[in-house]
Design brief:
about 525 residues; alpha+beta; Beta Polymerase, domain 2; 2 domains; eight-stranded mixed sheet; disordered C terminus; binds adenosine-5'-triphosphate; binds magnesium ion
Length: about 525
Amino acid sequence: MNSPEARLVAPAAKPRVIPRAEHTISRSHVSPNALRVLYRLKDGGFQAFLVGGCVRDLLLGMEPKDFDVATDALPDQVKRLFRNCRLVGRRFRLAHVFFGQEIIEVATFRAATAPSQGEEPLADADPEDGEAPELDEPELGSEAAGAAARGGPEAAGDTAELADEAGAGVGEAARDRAFARADRPPPGDDSERMFDHTGRILRDNVYGTIDEDVWRRDFTANSLYYNIADFSIWDYVGGVEDITARRLRLIGDPETRFREDPVRMLRAARFEAKLGFGIDPQTAEPIGRLRELLGGVPPARLFDEMLKLFLTGHGARSLEVLRRRGLLGQLLPNVDAYLAAHSGGLVERLLMKGLENTDARAVAGRPVTPTFLLALLLYGPIAQIIESMPPERWHEIAAIAEACERAVRQAQAHLTIPRRFSLGVTEMFSLQPRLEHPSGRRALRLLTHPRFRAAYDLLLLRSELGLASPEMAQWWTRVQEVPQEEQGSMADALVQKAGPRPERPRTGRRRRRGRRGPRAS
Ligand code: ATP
Ligand code: MG
């Protein structure tokens, strides 16, 4: 069927059924809510399978991030079975079944075959013409930011896959409006697939059988179905074998599949980083040629993908894979250019250390934030802009804020950064000189600043790398630990020790960085 030597992976007409006795997936590792959904569908007379990443992760002995269900029940039939259910998705309806914090996503099997050679592509719609459609989906561009950060289910693939269909959260971007418009089905027409001139899927709207559903999945490792009827695994594509060999292979012709949805290139990088799988050479080959197609993906969706790459426990490895595969430039061109020009330098070390800390937090289930992540990623570009200003401006809060805004603007070449996160970055950087040169008791007010914690964490990181004074970082650590009465005397002692403040507060950071040179490698 699908030996590794086979040129392309084509799903078999019938699955290889692996009985319960021959695999390791146990119901005790499946979310009880997912089991409830599966059993209710089955008892309603429908087929019900776990599918995708959760089956892959269970086979790998990992804890799945979310549980996705595939069924032959139509969305309305699913809705009738569950009170706690909401249909989402404009073009392709999905059911979300809610259990408190947990959402189980139930997708009806989709018939999606690769476009045939002669299929006439659609021209892009005129970006000046038309407006965004009304949305009936959660705002993925912004909500999924938090969700991805929490590893929450809104960030799950089938929904995220539809982010561009909704054109959500990107009202200001003309090209997204164009996509959204091109994507809007004519009334009464809900049964077509549409592609743009690059081969990108604009609409994918046909319900089908499980044999057809497998075609629209991306990697063989993500295309296994766990059948609740008899606890067997259905494998159409040699996915079990590929998981054992820790290999990522796209189903179908890789170039076509990447053209249909260029985000699959980022997904490949994410799974390489997350699972430590190798990308099969045939799957990897077109990435170098096609990566620029990511420029045509709605910016809100790229932002969501970026969060999944960096905030779900494998950010340091994601950075390495993205750079090696030439994909970082498609997400954050200024970060890529900075790192390329200062390879192995202090900023790269700060970034890697920061990502490792973030990974450890994510793995431990502690909160991680897009703001802190962006501050890490943009550290080099921000420092570079500040250092391009006259040295007498390096300590000015206004100059720091301006540099942050310029770096964020550059970073938005391909993706959108929601304003609340970019404002947070500016605040974090603007707080650095105030933390490095606390002005007596007034400085204690910073402890209640909403961005204090993030700014303090950045100060710690900078001090670890010699980019800020370790004594000041320790002072802020201590002042948070002592009772309130002692905080005042700590602040007084600091003023006495420092003597009168210089007329202009120096930014030790910038001057020191300037002297040492940020390019130290
Ligand atoms: P994880 O949840 O660990 O990030 P996952 O494989 O479950 O990984 P999701 O984004 O949750 O990824 O998507 C669920 C499933 O939906 C995938 O396993 C895959 O079968 C399918 N899928 C998601 N996105 C795409 C895509 N862009 N193209 C094709 N199939 C996709
Ligand atoms: Mg998933």
